[in-house]
Amino acid sequence: MSEKKRTLLVVEDDPALQKQMRWAFDAYEVVTAEDRESAIIQLRRHEPAVVTMDLGLPPLPDDTAEGFALLDEILSLAPDTKVIVLTGQHDRENAVRAVGAGAYDFFAKPFEPDLLLLTIDRAYRLYDLQMENRKLQMQHARGPLSGVITRDAGMLRILRTIEKVASANVTVMLLGESGTGKEILAKGLHEASPRRNERFVAINCAAIPENLLESELFGYERGAFTGAVKQTPGKFELAHKGTLFLDEIGDLPIALQAKLLRFLQERLVERIGGREGIPVDVRVVCATHQDLRAQISNGKFREDLFYRLAEIVIDIPPLRARDGDASLLAHAFVQRFAADNRRGALGLTEEAAAAISAHQWPGNVRELENCIKRAVIMADSGRISADDLGLSAPDEDFAALNLRQVRDEAERAAVVRVLARVNGNIARAAEVLGVSRPTLYDLMNRFGLKKDPL
Protein backbone atom coordinates (compact mmCIF):
# COMPACT_ATOMS: atom_id res chain seq x y z
CA MET A 1 0.00 0.00 0.00
CA SER A 2 1.52 3.35 -1.06
CA GLU A 3 2.27 6.00 1.54
CA LYS A 4 -0.36 8.74 1.75
CA LYS A 5 0.73 12.00 0.16
CA ARG A 6 1.10 15.08 2.35
CA THR A 7 -1.30 17.95 1.75
CA LEU A 8 -0.15 21.19 0.14
CA LEU A 9 -2.62 24.09 0.04
CA VAL A 10 -2.28 26.33 -3.02
CA VAL A 11 -4.13 29.66 -2.84
CA GLU A 12 -4.31 30.96 -6.40
CA ASP A 13 -7.17 32.54 -8.39
CA ASP A 14 -5.73 31.74 -11.87
CA PRO A 15 -7.19 28.34 -12.99
CA ALA A 16 -4.34 27.79 -15.47
CA LEU A 17 -1.71 28.35 -12.80
CA GLN A 18 -3.62 26.09 -10.40
CA LYS A 19 -3.46 23.31 -12.98
CA GLN A 20 0.25 23.90 -13.57
CA MET A 21 1.01 23.73 -9.84
CA ARG A 22 -1.01 20.53 -9.44
CA TRP A 23 1.12 18.97 -12.15
CA ALA A 24 4.45 20.36 -10.90
CA PHE A 25 3.85 19.37 -7.27
CA ASP A 26 2.38 15.89 -7.85
CA ALA A 27 4.51 14.52 -5.01
CA TYR A 28 1.96 16.21 -2.73
CA GLU A 29 -1.82 16.10 -2.46
CA VAL A 30 -2.47 19.58 -3.83
CA VAL A 31 -5.61 21.29 -2.51
CA THR A 32 -6.55 24.60 -4.13
CA ALA A 33 -8.46 27.72 -3.10
CA GLU A 34 -9.15 30.83 -5.14
CA ASP A 35 -9.90 33.40 -2.40
CA ARG A 36 -9.57 34.10 1.31
CA GLU A 37 -12.85 32.48 2.34
CA SER A 38 -12.21 29.20 0.49
CA ALA A 39 -8.60 29.16 1.69
CA ILE A 40 -9.68 29.27 5.35
CA ILE A 41 -12.21 26.49 4.70
CA GLN A 42 -9.49 24.30 3.18
CA LEU A 43 -7.08 25.21 5.98
CA ARG A 44 -9.55 24.07 8.63
CA ARG A 45 -10.48 20.92 6.69
CA HIS A 46 -7.00 19.66 5.76
CA GLU A 47 -4.65 21.39 8.27
CA PRO A 48 -1.76 21.51 5.77
CA ALA A 49 1.78 21.98 7.04
CA VAL A 50 2.69 24.17 4.05
CA VAL A 51 0.69 26.78 2.10
CA THR A 52 1.62 28.68 -1.05
CA MET A 53 -0.43 31.81 -1.64
CA ASP A 54 -0.63 34.73 -4.02
CA LEU A 55 -0.80 38.12 -2.33
CA GLY A 56 -3.17 39.44 -5.00
CA LEU A 57 -6.52 37.78 -4.33
CA PRO A 58 -10.17 38.54 -5.22
CA PRO A 59 -12.10 40.74 -4.93
CA LEU A 60 -9.12 43.10 -5.55
CA PRO A 61 -6.46 40.96 -7.26
CA ASP A 62 -4.33 44.02 -8.05
CA ASP A 63 -4.10 44.93 -4.36
CA THR A 64 -2.28 43.05 -1.57
CA ALA A 65 -4.69 43.87 1.27
CA GLU A 66 -6.66 40.64 0.89
CA GLY A 67 -3.47 38.59 0.72
CA PHE A 68 -2.03 40.09 3.91
CA ALA A 69 -5.37 39.59 5.68
CA LEU A 70 -5.28 35.91 4.70
CA LEU A 71 -1.66 35.57 5.85
CA ASP A 72 -2.55 36.99 9.28
CA GLU A 73 -5.56 34.69 9.56
CA ILE A 74 -3.57 31.57 8.60
CA LEU A 75 -0.84 32.31 11.13
CA SER A 76 -3.45 33.07 13.78
CA LEU A 77 -5.32 29.79 13.20
CA ALA A 78 -2.23 27.62 12.56
CA PRO A 79 0.96 29.33 13.82
CA ASP A 80 3.19 26.40 12.84
CA THR A 81 2.05 26.37 9.20
CA LYS A 82 4.76 27.43 6.75
CA VAL A 83 3.39 30.02 4.30
CA ILE A 84 5.26 30.67 1.04
CA VAL A 85 4.11 33.92 -0.53
CA LEU A 86 4.04 34.48 -4.31
CA THR A 87 4.45 38.09 -5.44
CA GLY A 88 4.90 40.10 -8.61
CA GLN A 89 8.29 40.15 -10.32
CA HIS A 90 9.21 43.61 -8.99
CA ASP A 91 7.24 43.60 -5.73
CA ARG A 92 10.12 42.96 -3.32
CA GLU A 93 8.77 45.45 -0.76
CA ASN A 94 5.61 43.43 -0.14
CA ALA A 95 7.59 40.18 -0.19
CA VAL A 96 9.85 41.42 2.61
CA ARG A 97 6.81 42.75 4.47
CA ALA A 98 5.18 39.30 4.24
CA VAL A 99 8.25 37.56 5.66
CA GLY A 100 8.31 40.14 8.46
CA ALA A 101 4.68 39.28 9.19
CA GLY A 102 5.56 35.60 9.63
CA ALA A 103 5.66 34.06 6.14
CA TYR A 104 8.24 31.29 5.72
CA ASP A 105 9.58 32.52 2.35
CA PHE A 106 8.60 34.32 -0.86
CA PHE A 107 8.88 33.71 -4.59
CA ALA A 108 8.44 36.11 -7.49
CA LYS A 109 6.15 35.23 -10.41
CA PRO A 110 6.76 33.71 -12.86
CA PHE A 111 8.58 31.11 -10.79
CA GLU A 112 10.72 28.07 -11.59
CA PRO A 113 8.68 25.06 -10.39
CA ASP A 114 11.81 23.12 -9.41
CA LEU A 115 13.08 25.95 -7.22
CA LEU A 116 9.71 26.47 -5.58
CA LEU A 117 9.43 22.70 -4.98
CA LEU A 118 12.80 22.76 -3.24
CA THR A 119 11.57 25.54 -0.93
CA ILE A 120 8.35 23.60 -0.25
CA ASP A 121 10.37 20.48 0.64
CA ARG A 122 12.53 22.52 3.03
CA ALA A 123 9.43 24.00 4.65
CA TYR A 124 8.08 20.50 5.31
CA ARG A 125 11.42 19.43 6.81
CA LEU A 126 11.42 22.44 9.17
CA TYR A 127 7.81 21.74 10.14
CA ASP A 128 8.66 18.08 10.88
CA LEU A 129 11.63 19.09 13.02
CA GLN A 130 9.50 21.51 15.05
CA MET A 131 6.82 18.86 15.55
CA GLU A 132 9.44 16.34 16.69
CA ASN A 133 10.83 18.90 19.12
CA ARG A 134 7.33 19.55 20.50
CA LYS A 135 6.73 15.82 20.85
CA LEU A 136 9.95 15.42 22.83
CA GLN A 137 8.98 18.34 25.06
CA MET A 138 5.57 16.80 25.72
CA GLN A 139 7.16 13.43 26.54
CA HIS A 140 9.27 15.10 29.22
CA ALA A 141 6.70 17.69 30.26
CA ARG A 142 5.60 15.86 33.38
CA GLY A 143 8.85 14.02 34.05
CA PRO A 144 11.55 14.95 36.54
CA LEU A 145 13.99 15.66 33.69
CA SER A 146 11.63 17.98 31.82
CA GLY A 147 14.34 20.61 31.38
CA VAL A 148 16.48 18.32 29.24
CA ILE A 149 15.75 18.27 25.50
CA THR A 150 17.82 15.69 23.61
CA ARG A 151 17.73 12.90 21.09
CA ASP A 152 21.45 12.06 21.37
CA ALA A 153 22.01 8.43 22.32
CA GLY A 154 24.69 9.31 24.89
CA MET A 155 22.52 11.88 26.64
CA LEU A 156 19.54 9.52 26.66
CA ARG A 157 21.71 6.92 28.43
CA ILE A 158 22.68 9.56 31.00
CA LEU A 159 19.02 10.36 31.65
CA ARG A 160 18.28 6.68 32.21
CA THR A 161 21.25 6.47 34.60
CA ILE A 162 19.99 9.44 36.59
CA GLU A 163 16.53 7.90 36.85
CA LYS A 164 18.10 4.66 38.12
CA VAL A 165 20.32 6.22 40.80
CA ALA A 166 17.73 8.79 41.92
CA SER A 167 16.11 6.41 44.40
CA ALA A 168 19.44 5.18 45.82
CA ASN A 169 20.95 7.05 48.76
CA VAL A 170 24.33 7.66 47.13
CA THR A 171 26.41 10.73 46.44
CA VAL A 172 26.51 11.69 42.76
CA MET A 173 29.24 13.59 40.94
CA LEU A 174 28.42 15.29 37.61
CA LEU A 175 31.41 16.00 35.39
CA GLY A 176 31.26 18.18 32.29
CA GLU A 177 32.22 21.46 30.69
CA SER A 178 30.61 24.71 31.78
CA GLY A 179 27.16 25.18 30.31
CA THR A 180 26.37 21.52 29.68
CA GLY A 181 23.40 21.51 32.04
CA LYS A 182 24.83 20.02 35.23
CA GLU A 183 22.45 21.93 37.53
CA ILE A 184 19.42 20.94 35.41
CA LEU A 185 20.44 17.29 35.73
CA ALA A 186 21.00 17.70 39.46
CA LYS A 187 17.50 19.15 39.84
CA GLY A 188 16.12 16.30 37.74
CA LEU A 189 17.83 13.78 39.99
CA HIS A 190 16.26 15.48 43.02
CA GLU A 191 12.79 15.51 41.42
CA ALA A 192 13.08 11.80 40.57
CA SER A 193 14.13 10.87 44.12
CA PRO A 194 12.09 10.18 47.27
CA ARG A 195 13.28 13.60 48.50
CA ARG A 196 11.35 15.45 45.75
CA ASN A 197 8.95 17.10 48.22
CA GLU A 198 11.80 18.61 50.23
CA ARG A 199 14.15 21.45 49.36
CA PHE A 200 16.75 21.51 46.58
CA VAL A 201 19.51 23.87 47.71
CA ALA A 202 22.32 24.90 45.35
CA ILE A 203 25.56 26.73 46.04
CA ASN A 204 28.41 27.62 43.69
CA CYS A 205 31.67 27.00 45.51
CA ALA A 206 33.58 29.19 43.05
CA ALA A 207 31.29 32.21 43.35
CA ILE A 208 31.66 32.84 47.10
CA PRO A 209 34.84 34.22 48.70
CA GLU A 210 36.74 31.66 50.76
CA ASN A 211 36.28 33.58 54.02
CA LEU A 212 32.47 33.49 53.58
CA LEU A 213 32.04 30.02 52.10
CA GLU A 214 32.38 28.16 55.40
CA SER A 215 29.61 30.19 57.06
CA GLU A 216 27.42 29.76 53.96
CA LEU A 217 27.80 25.99 54.05
CA PHE A 218 27.82 25.27 57.77
CA GLY A 219 26.15 28.31 59.35
CA TYR A 220 27.22 30.19 62.48
CA GLU A 221 26.17 30.97 66.02
CA ARG A 222 25.38 34.42 67.30
CA GLY A 223 28.58 36.27 68.25
CA ALA A 224 30.84 33.79 66.42
CA PHE A 225 32.48 36.70 64.60
CA THR A 226 31.99 40.41 64.03
CA GLY A 227 28.61 40.94 62.38
CA ALA A 228 27.16 37.60 63.51
CA VAL A 229 24.18 39.20 65.23
CA LYS A 230 21.94 36.15 65.12
CA GLN A 231 22.10 32.37 64.83
CA THR A 232 22.11 31.42 61.13
CA PRO A 233 21.82 27.90 59.68
CA GLY A 234 23.99 26.98 56.68
CA LYS A 235 23.10 25.34 53.39
CA PHE A 236 23.47 21.85 54.83
CA GLU A 237 20.80 22.52 57.44
CA LEU A 238 18.54 24.30 54.98
CA ALA A 239 18.64 21.21 52.75
CA HIS A 240 17.73 18.83 55.60
CA LYS A 241 15.82 15.83 54.18
CA GLY A 242 16.35 17.26 50.69
CA THR A 243 19.26 17.65 48.27
CA LEU A 244 22.32 19.90 48.44
CA PHE A 245 23.95 20.67 45.10
CA LEU A 246 27.61 21.72 45.40
CA ASP A 247 28.49 23.26 42.05
CA GLU A 248 32.16 23.70 41.07
CA ILE A 249 33.31 21.45 43.89
CA GLY A 250 36.80 21.54 42.38
CA ASP A 251 37.14 25.12 43.67
CA LEU A 252 36.39 24.19 47.28
CA PRO A 253 39.31 25.40 49.47
CA ILE A 254 41.45 22.61 50.89
CA ALA A 255 40.60 23.60 54.48
CA LEU A 256 36.88 23.22 53.82
CA GLN A 257 37.45 19.92 52.06
CA ALA A 258 38.43 18.40 55.38
CA LYS A 259 35.29 19.72 57.04
CA LEU A 260 33.10 18.45 54.17
CA LEU A 261 34.74 15.02 54.42
CA ARG A 262 34.00 14.90 58.14
CA PHE A 263 30.35 15.75 57.48
CA LEU A 264 30.03 13.01 54.87
CA GLN A 265 31.47 10.51 57.34
CA GLU A 266 29.50 11.54 60.42
CA ARG A 267 26.47 13.38 58.97
CA LEU A 268 26.84 16.06 61.65
CA VAL A 269 27.11 19.79 61.01
CA GLU A 270 29.02 22.03 63.40
CA ARG A 271 28.26 25.72 63.00
CA ILE A 272 31.02 28.30 63.30
CA GLY A 273 31.22 29.16 66.99
CA GLY A 274 29.14 26.13 67.89
CA ARG A 275 30.09 23.30 70.27
CA GLU A 276 27.67 20.55 69.32
CA GLY A 277 27.14 18.61 66.13
CA ILE A 278 23.71 18.92 64.50
CA PRO A 279 22.40 15.77 62.74
CA VAL A 280 21.49 16.51 59.11
CA ASP A 281 19.91 14.13 56.61
CA VAL A 282 20.83 15.45 53.18
CA ARG A 283 21.77 14.00 49.84
CA VAL A 284 24.86 15.59 48.31
CA VAL A 285 25.18 16.04 44.56
CA CYS A 286 28.28 17.82 43.28
CA ALA A 287 29.56 19.01 39.94
CA THR A 288 32.70 20.38 38.36
CA HIS A 289 34.26 21.11 34.99
CA GLN A 290 37.74 20.44 36.36
CA ASP A 291 39.83 17.27 36.18
CA LEU A 292 39.72 16.26 39.84
CA ARG A 293 42.28 13.46 39.39
CA ALA A 294 44.75 16.04 38.13
CA GLN A 295 43.80 18.24 41.09
CA ILE A 296 44.57 15.30 43.40
CA SER A 297 47.99 14.85 41.79
CA ASN A 298 48.70 18.56 42.29
CA GLY A 299 47.64 18.41 45.93
CA LYS A 300 44.67 20.73 45.36
CA PHE A 301 41.95 18.16 46.06
CA ARG A 302 41.80 15.45 48.72
CA GLU A 303 41.75 11.93 47.33
CA ASP A 304 39.70 10.59 50.26
CA LEU A 305 37.07 13.30 49.66
CA PHE A 306 36.99 12.48 45.96
CA TYR A 307 36.07 8.85 46.64
CA ARG A 308 33.41 9.93 49.14
CA LEU A 309 31.83 12.24 46.56
CA ALA A 310 32.27 9.96 43.55
CA GLU A 311 30.09 7.02 44.55
CA ILE A 312 28.32 7.52 41.23
CA VAL A 313 30.12 9.52 38.52
CA ILE A 314 28.24 10.80 35.45
CA ASP A 315 30.19 12.33 32.55
CA ILE A 316 28.10 14.83 30.57
CA PRO A 317 29.20 15.25 26.94
CA PRO A 318 29.66 18.75 25.50
CA LEU A 319 27.00 20.05 23.10
CA ARG A 320 29.30 19.60 20.08
CA ALA A 321 29.39 15.84 20.79
CA ARG A 322 25.58 15.45 20.92
CA ASP A 323 24.30 14.55 17.46
CA GLY A 324 21.48 16.86 16.40
CA ASP A 325 20.97 18.44 19.82
CA ALA A 326 22.20 21.93 18.88
CA SER A 327 19.49 22.35 16.21
CA LEU A 328 16.85 20.70 18.38
CA LEU A 329 17.60 23.01 21.31
CA ALA A 330 17.80 26.04 19.04
CA HIS A 331 14.26 25.52 17.73
CA ALA A 332 13.01 25.05 21.31
CA PHE A 333 14.73 28.25 22.47
CA VAL A 334 13.30 30.20 19.51
CA GLN A 335 9.77 29.14 20.47
CA ARG A 336 10.31 29.97 24.15
CA PHE A 337 11.92 33.40 23.64
CA ALA A 338 9.52 34.34 20.82
CA ALA A 339 6.62 33.70 23.22
CA ASP A 340 8.38 35.58 26.04
CA ASN A 341 8.99 38.60 23.80
CA ARG A 342 5.65 38.42 21.95
CA ARG A 343 7.31 37.96 18.59
CA GLY A 344 4.56 35.68 17.21
CA ALA A 345 5.49 32.96 14.71
CA LEU A 346 9.29 33.05 14.51
CA GLY A 347 11.62 30.45 13.03
CA LEU A 348 15.14 29.73 11.81
CA THR A 349 16.20 29.86 8.18
CA GLU A 350 17.77 26.69 6.85
CA GLU A 351 21.14 28.49 6.66
CA ALA A 352 20.81 29.49 10.32
CA ALA A 353 20.04 25.89 11.33
CA ALA A 354 23.06 24.69 9.34
CA ALA A 355 25.27 27.32 10.99
CA ILE A 356 24.08 26.22 14.43
CA SER A 357 24.86 22.58 13.63
CA ALA A 358 28.34 23.47 12.32
CA HIS A 359 29.32 25.74 15.23
CA GLN A 360 31.40 24.14 18.01
CA TRP A 361 29.65 25.95 20.91
CA PRO A 362 32.54 26.14 23.40
CA GLY A 363 30.08 27.58 25.92
CA ASN A 364 27.71 24.67 25.30
CA VAL A 365 23.96 24.97 25.93
CA ARG A 366 24.34 28.21 27.90
CA GLU A 367 26.09 29.89 24.96
CA LEU A 368 23.48 28.60 22.50
CA GLU A 369 20.64 29.83 24.72
CA ASN A 370 22.12 33.33 24.99
CA CYS A 371 22.78 33.43 21.24
CA ILE A 372 19.17 32.52 20.38
CA LYS A 373 17.75 34.93 22.96
CA ARG A 374 19.72 37.82 21.47
CA ALA A 375 18.74 36.84 17.91
CA VAL A 376 15.03 36.63 18.76
CA ILE A 377 15.14 40.16 20.18
CA MET A 378 17.19 41.63 17.32
CA ALA A 379 15.70 39.82 14.28
CA ASP A 380 13.95 42.19 11.88
CA SER A 381 11.82 39.59 10.08
CA GLY A 382 9.86 36.44 10.94
CA ARG A 383 12.86 34.23 10.28
CA ILE A 384 16.19 34.30 12.11
CA SER A 385 19.17 34.26 9.76
CA ALA A 386 22.77 33.20 10.31
CA ASP A 387 23.67 36.92 10.42
CA ASP A 388 21.15 37.48 13.23
CA LEU A 389 22.95 34.73 15.16
CA GLY A 390 26.37 36.19 14.43
CA LEU A 391 27.42 32.92 12.77
CA SER A 392 28.77 32.10 9.34
CA ALA A 393 26.57 29.90 7.16
CA PRO A 394 28.58 26.79 6.25
CA ASP A 395 28.97 25.54 2.69
CA GLU A 396 26.90 22.45 3.43
CA ASP A 397 26.58 19.77 0.76
CA PHE A 398 23.20 18.07 1.18
CA ALA A 399 24.47 15.19 -0.92
CA ALA A 400 26.63 14.25 2.06
CA LEU A 401 23.41 13.71 4.04
CA ASN A 402 22.02 11.18 1.54
CA LEU A 403 21.36 7.97 3.48
CA ARG A 404 22.25 5.68 0.58
CA GLN A 405 25.60 7.42 0.10
CA VAL A 406 26.36 7.32 3.82
CA ARG A 407 25.44 3.62 3.95
CA ASP A 408 27.61 2.80 0.92
CA GLU A 409 30.58 4.63 2.40
CA ALA A 410 30.17 2.80 5.71
CA GLU A 411 29.86 -0.59 3.98
CA ARG A 412 32.93 0.06 1.82
CA ALA A 413 34.99 1.12 4.83
CA ALA A 414 33.93 -2.03 6.74
CA VAL A 415 34.77 -4.34 3.81
CA VAL A 416 38.18 -2.73 3.27
CA ARG A 417 39.03 -2.87 6.97
CA VAL A 418 38.01 -6.52 7.37
CA LEU A 419 39.79 -7.66 4.18
CA ALA A 420 42.93 -5.98 5.45
CA ARG A 421 42.61 -7.66 8.84
CA VAL A 422 42.19 -11.16 7.34
CA ASN A 423 44.82 -10.58 4.61
CA GLY A 424 42.30 -10.95 1.79
CA ASN A 425 40.83 -14.28 2.94
CA ILE A 426 37.34 -14.07 1.38
CA ALA A 427 35.81 -16.89 3.42
CA ARG A 428 37.07 -15.44 6.70
CA ALA A 429 36.07 -11.88 5.72
CA ALA A 430 32.53 -13.02 4.86
CA GLU A 431 32.30 -14.76 8.24
CA VAL A 432 33.48 -11.66 10.13
CA LEU A 433 31.11 -9.37 8.18
CA GLY A 434 28.17 -11.74 8.69
CA VAL A 435 27.38 -12.13 4.97
CA SER A 436 27.64 -14.92 2.42
CA ARG A 437 30.63 -15.17 0.08
CA PRO A 438 28.53 -14.27 -3.02
CA THR A 439 27.25 -11.17 -1.16
CA LEU A 440 30.81 -10.18 -0.30
CA TYR A 441 31.88 -10.61 -3.91
CA ASP A 442 28.97 -8.40 -4.99
CA LEU A 443 30.03 -5.72 -2.50
CA MET A 444 33.63 -5.89 -3.71
CA ASN A 445 32.50 -5.53 -7.33
CA ARG A 446 30.28 -2.59 -6.44
CA PHE A 447 33.08 -0.80 -4.60
CA GLY A 448 35.77 -1.68 -7.20
CA LEU A 449 37.87 -3.73 -4.76
CA LYS A 450 40.33 -6.31 -6.06
CA LYS A 451 39.74 -9.97 -5.24
CA ASP A 452 43.47 -10.62 -4.83
CA PRO A 453 44.88 -10.85 -1.28
CA LEU A 454 45.67 -7.43 0.07
Descriptive overview:
The protein is α/β, with parallel strands linked by helices. It is built from 19 helices and 16 strands. The strands form 5 sheets. The chain has a 5-stranded parallel beta sheet with strand order 2-1-3-4-5, with helices on both faces. A 5-stranded parallel beta sheet has the order 7-10-13-6-14. The chain has a two-stranded antiparallel ribbon with strand order 8-9. Strand 3, helix 3 and strand 4 form a beta-alpha-beta unit. Helix 2 runs parallel beside helix 3 (65-77). The longest helix has 28 residues, at 113-140. It is flat.
Question: Any descriptors?
Answer:
454 residues, alpha/beta, five-stranded parallel sheet, 19 helices
Q: Could you tell me the strand content as a percent range?
A: 5-15%
Mean pLDDT reading: 88
Helix/strand-derived class?
alpha/beta
State the strand order across the main sheet.
Answer: 2-1-3-4-5
**What proportion of the residues is helical, as a percent range?**
40-55%
Low-confidence stretches: none
Question: What is the alpha-carbon Rg in Å?
Answer: 30 Å
Head-to-tail CA distance between termini: 46 Å
DSSP summary, beta strand count: 16
Q: Please outline the major beta sheet.
A: 5 strands, parallel
Quick one: overall form? Answer: flat
Tally of DSSP helical segments: 19
